[in-house]
Structure formats: structure tokens, C-alpha cells
Amino acid sequence: MIIDGVEMRGIEVGDAAGLADVLARNRAFMAHVEPWRSEVFYTEAGQAARIEALLAEGAAGRQASYVLVEAGSGAPVGTINLGSIALGPLRSGGVGYWVDRAWHGRGLATAAVEEVCRIARDEIGLHRVEAGTLVDNLASQRVLAKAGFERYGLAPRYLHINGAWRDHVLFQRILHDDAPL
């Protein structure tokens, strides 16, 4: 997938330095929607360890992780993950994403969510993808609505964000109604 000069591809350990840089630049901007992170998280070593863990989860079939990179330079501008993948009769997963502040408003998050839903349906065989946003994260809620997600509930004190347990609005997208394979 390429949109507005950005492509989505599988995340690699070689992305660690670029991700550390973009995450550090966006740290203050994303603080109100992200859990607390240690200083190590914002380093190349911290990102390499995180990516290695994501890749191990991917090899076990529980995670699919992607990076959004500028097509020319290869510089990361965001990530998207499909995690908590459950097969069997549930066939579900949860999506999480973020985009560099400088790239907001260009449709990147929506395009990435749509592509991950396609992968979830066509390549993994999932029936459903879910997501949660802070109650006041209207931008992320718009992304999900544009990508075909429906609001289905509210989870009180769902995640510890910015120093407190925060309520989240829950969304889902049903990908198909076929029987599980």
C-alpha cells in the first residue's frame, strides 16, 4: 500500500533507529493518548527490543506489525499493529496505530487501517477487528469510522494513560460472515 508518498510494510529490526527518532519527536504530542513509557523506549536499543518481541509474537501467529515509511527515504512516519489475534471460532484481532504529527490529516491512518483489515480478512482469515480509543480522541474515532468500524461500547477505566485509568470507546469492524476455516 502506498498513499501520499508513504508505504506500509512489515516492521524490521532495522527500523529501530528511525522509530526511536520519530517517537522521541512526537513524545509530547502523543503523551495524552499513550501509556507511560520508560526512557529506554525512545532509544534505538529500546525500539530494537520492542520490534524483536513483536516479530516473535508474529512468528507465533499472535501479532502482525507494520511500519509506515516515506517511499523515498524509508524514514518511519508511523506504525500499525494487529494484535491479540485469536483463531478458532472467534477469529478476531485488535488494531492499534499512530502517525507522526507532521503527517496527520493526509489519510495515512485510515488507509493503513483499511489495509490491515484487508490482510486480516484475506490473509489471516479473521472475522472481526476491534479497536479502542480514549473518549475524547475524536481524530482516531474519525479514522475508525472512515475505515468502516462501528462503535459498540464503552470500557470504563480500560487503559492506564497519562497517569490514570481512562475510559475507552470500543469499535469493531465485521470483515465477513463466512464460517471459520
Describe the structure.
- There is one protein chain.
- The chain is built from five helices and eight strands.
- It is of the alpha+beta class.
- An eight-stranded mixed sheet has the order 1-2-3-4-5-6-8-7, with helices on both faces.
Cα distance spanning the termini: 27 Å
Mean residue pLDDT: 95
- Poorly predicted ranges: none
Structural class: alpha+beta
Q: Give, in order, the helices and strands.
A: EEHHHEEEHEHEE
Strand order of the largest sheet: 1-2-3-4-5-6-8-7
The amount of beta strand, in percent, is: 25-35%
Number of strands: 8
Helical content stands at: 25-40%
Shape: globular
* Largest sheet report: 8 strands, mixed
Helix count, per DSSP? 5
Which features characterize this protein?
alpha+beta, 181 residues, globular, eight-stranded mixed sheet
SSE blueprint and pairings:
Blueprint lengths: L1 E2 L2 E5 L5 H10 L1 H4 L13 H16 L4 E7 L5 E11 L5 E8 L8 H17 L3 E7 L3 H9 L3 E12 L2 E11 L7
Parallel strand pairs: 5-6
Antiparallel strand pairs: 1-2, 2-3, 3-4, 4-5, 6-8, 7-8
Summarize the structure.
With 181 residues, this protein is α+β, with helices and mostly antiparallel strands. 31% of the residues lie in helices and 35% in strands.
